[in-house]
Amino acid sequence: MEASSSWHRSVALRPASGRNRSSIHSLGTDLICAIFARLDHLELVRCSVVCKSWNNVIYQSSLMRDLYYKKNPHIRSSSNISIPPETSMKIYLKELAMEQHRLALTSGSAEVHEWTGHPVRVNMCRMKRGVILTGVGDKVLRLWSAESCKYLDEYSLPAMNPLVDCDFDENKIVGMTSAQLCIWRRSGQRSIFQFHEAIVRHGLCMRYTDPEAVIGCDDGRACIFDMYSRSCSRIIRMHSGPVTCLATDDQLILGGSTFGSVTVADLSSGERLGVLKSSFSPTGMKSMCFNPHSFLLFAGSTAGYAHCWDLRTLRPLWEVRASPNVIYAMHHLSNDTSTLAIGGLDGVLRILNQSTGEIVSSLVVNASLENNKEVVEKKASVLSGVPVVESIPRYLRPPITCLAVGMKKVVTTHNEKFVRIWRFQ
């Protein structure tokens, strides 16, 4: 044992290949800052999650901030954001990323990648952390890379009703049929539980905030389930008619109805806090999203109106006729308070100003550039008005049934077999 121990010590002390090994951590903070200062701001954000020491250098070093400003003067001069000198690099990069995202989405320039995602028509998509989830309409959910459009994995529901709604995070995928909730672990384990018919007669929509899932029902109730104990903890009467769409955060449930109103309720107590109504459009709500950073709730109606309420006052902020037909989907990047993407029956992807409701860009896909590839490349055309939209054949602008927004990109489904991702320049 003594000889073995000495041998291990001699090996450990012997330089590899005749020289000492070194790591990037031995370079020193000043040199690491100089290297990081040459990176794009989005690459910096990726580097910040590699390890704690890199995170500290990028987000807490004043030298890093000063070097980044010096190496990238065009960033400061071209940006509309004004940031005090003492502001941390983390806040600066966050504000810069959101500004670049806003400029990209409002530029009107986009390249579209389209691929066949399912053997049957699907009408729903989600996008988080560079991963896309597609499905609903059949019994299979599929994951794709948002960067390469490559297939990653799939999750199926054999011998069950078709999926109605879905969502996912880094650990699991949650799918809902009209009568069941199915949870897949990314590791492969699957859990299915049947709704008790006396509690959920017919589920229409679903949102979850771990560990609870909120089910919107056709009888106007929202049922809150613990996804792991499978128990129904609360039932909230939202409307006298079906709950057509939901939005949630850690504290609130917001449910839209076929009568054009939105009920706001406390998630923990079930207490109804208020009812939001349209000023002039008593039509059903089809889509909804909530921005917790600005306390603004957005909703799309069957008549093509986009609505915005300030939840601090429970009053409408703006209402605009954004589309001639029903708005099926709307979404925004989680930290973005400037742009809102909407889509609907007319097949036009529109970008709205979150503060005013102004339509800043309207896009449709035009002819293919590459038709012999698995992923077809197309260009998006900017539209200038309603007459231009009506002049485009319907087969060239299939309805947008769902959309999800990522950094400088939007993924859409169209109740067809294909999936599209719009990459904004």
TrEMBL record:
Coiled-coil ranges per UniProt: none
This protein's record includes keyword Nucleus: no
Name of the protein this chain belongs to: F-box/WD-40 repeat-containing protein
Highest rank taxon of the organism: Eukaryota
Any one Pfam family match given in the protein's UniProt record, by short name: F-box-like
Domain F-box: 21-67
UniProt keyword terms in alphabetical order: Repeat, WD repeat
InterPro entries linked to this entry: F-box-like_dom_sf, F-box_dom, FBXW2, WD40/YVTN_repeat-like_dom_sf, WD40_repeat_dom_sf, WD40_rpt
